[in-house]
Every structure is written in structure tokens, then in C-alpha cells.
Amino acid sequence: MTRRGFAATAEQLARHLRVVTYDRRGWGDSRGKVAPQRWWATHGDDLIAVIESMGEAAEVVAWGSGGAAAIHAALRRPELVRQLVLFEPTLGAGPPRARRLRHLRRSLAWAAAGEHRRSRAVFWRATTQRGVWSLQTGHRGITCAFDHVRSDIREMLLSAPGPLADELLAGTEDELLERLGELRPEVHILLGGMSVRPVFRIADRWVERCPTAGFRGEDDCDALLPLNRPRVFAACVLEMLGYTDWRAIAAARLAELREVLRLPALERVRVRCVRNSEVFVPDATTGALRWDPEAESACASLIVGSTYEVTGVSPREFGVIDECGEDYGYPPQWFEPVAIDWHE
């Protein structure tokens, strides 16, 4: 990733703070190479140089393996790092030779063959895939956040210049796990609730080793949260740093919902259910599968025609309180927006 990927997030954060983004050595517009044996230590030293050039200590936000550079900087010069916000840090994920990271070996193979776009595609699909329950098939399937983001985001991820293969070979600085107890700044770990499970196990290990660390997950967000939901990401960062509270996150979610539904600026949003399941039955005449609302009316937790208040939103999921009183996520295409009677 380059600094351009954080442009939308930086714009949101800049409303409250002075924001500085930069390209790491060898990435984007930055030049220079890194010796493999000092990969993350060098990037950490570069981060220290960036902070020193600002003339004051900084609160550092890092994503994924970039957390290794942030930890190196905080351990070496703790007076320069006030707080750390790490989104899905990968310290302790293991090197590419690990069996669970077989997809990353495929990424390295494509890079060695000079197929850098294919290498990046394998990497992003491997690191953003997640399990989902499929009502159509009745078993756990796999979807991928990378395949669902806007085309311009996918293009940025595939074309961003940088030594991705060298970074994979450098590993995830597993040995830093043993030094987390030395960290002086507060550490805030943010996870996407719909992200891959290993990042949650990594966060557990962090909290065990680092007394100043705590983590939280955003339920309807995935591993590409900084790119495809910059308002929510920025609001979470500001809350963790103590500059805003949960109301900023609620406002960011509502702003996204208005964009998805093309609604006017409302303080609340309601939707009407137009279907309530993904179960299909064969048509008696043609044999073609079709959705049958009557067949589902007895067991569905939503009622077609009923109105619900939206509690959360993502491009693929609305949060609503259903007829059972539970707050669950449902596909946006099951609903249509309705006007709110402010005199109720």
C-alpha cells in the first residue's frame, strides 16, 4: 500500500488532528532499498525520522504488517510515540513458509515470474477472505472482501508500486511478540468483525503480552475497512485516541447509509422489507427456481411489508432489529427505503 490508499481516511482525521502520511522506503514515491535481515527495523527507523521532522511526538496509526515498523519505532524512541492504533496487526502471523499461509507462497511464485498484478491479487484475496453462512447451499462458504470493493480500490491495490514479495519474505517479526511488554505507549488494536479469524487470535496474543493493549472489532466491517469505509475507520481511530466518542461512529455509519440508499440527510433511517429469505422453490409450471414468500412466512424472522429501523450498514449488509427482537445483518436488497413520519 502507498499513502494514496489512506487519502480518504486522512481527510476525515484532518478535521480533528494534524495528519501526516508518507510512503515507506521503496513504496510509492519513496526510493531506497532495505536489507532483508533489517527489513522492519529499517522501516521503524524511517518512521522515527518522519516523526522527528514534524518537531513533536505523534500518535501513530498502522495497518497490517506496517504495525511492525510502528512497534520498532515505539520501542526504540518511546518519547516520540504517544499512542498506537494498529488495524489488524500481523505480528506473530508467521513467515510465508507456514502451512496456513500457503496462498502467500503462491503470491511469491507469481512475483518471481514477473506477474506482479497476479501476485498482488493472490495476496489480497488470501488476506481478506472470510467464511460466511450460505442459505442457498446450507454450508459455510468463502467470500472475499477484495472482490466486493469498488473497481478503483481494486485497481489501486493491484497497481500500487512497492516490494510486496520482499516484504512477505521478511516475515511478520514474530520475535517482537516477546518485547510487547516493554511498550510504553497505549496500544489500541482495531479489527474488522467480518475479517479472517487469525487476526483475532493474533490480537489475543497481543493482549496477553502487552499490558497496555486492548482491542475491539467493528461488527459489519472487513479487512479493507480503511479503504472502503474511511469515515467509520477514522471515527474509530478518533474514539480510541480519545478525541471523540461513539456518536462519531454512529454519524459515520449514517452518512454511509445515506450514500447507499441515496437518502436525504435524516437523523434516522427506516426500511420496508420486500423479501425475507434466500430459499427458492421450483415453479410448478416452468421448474425454474423462484422465491416464495408464503413458504417462508412461518419461519422467517422478518415480515414482508413490515418497516424496520436500520441500526448499521455496509455495502453487503444492513443491521436491523427483526421480529424476534434480535439485531441481525440482512442483505440490502431485501429492503426499500421509506419516509419517516416525524409526527409519530
Automatic annotation (TrEMBL):
Residues 7-110 form the Serine aminopeptidase S33 domain. InterPro entries: AB_hydrolase_fold (IPR029058), Hydrolase_4 (IPR022742). It comes from the Bacteria. SUPFAM superfamilies: alpha/beta-Hydrolases (SSF53474). Pfam families: Hydrolase_4 (PF12146). This is Pimeloyl-ACP methyl ester carboxylesterase.
